[in-house]
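ugh ok fine here u go
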Amino acid sequence: MITVGVVIGSWTGSLGIDAGYGLRAPLWVGVALAVLGFLSLLPDLVARSRPGAAA
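structure:
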């Protein structure tokens, strides 16, 4: 899965550069992917914060 993440990040970053956003596009793509990764963890974090939740 790490390799898939590297491939998708590189590909989308290069699409941003080719679209004319310049060399800062991969930085914004990285931010967006990091936010998506964090959001994917939220359901588990919410479930663990409930009283009586299994550890």
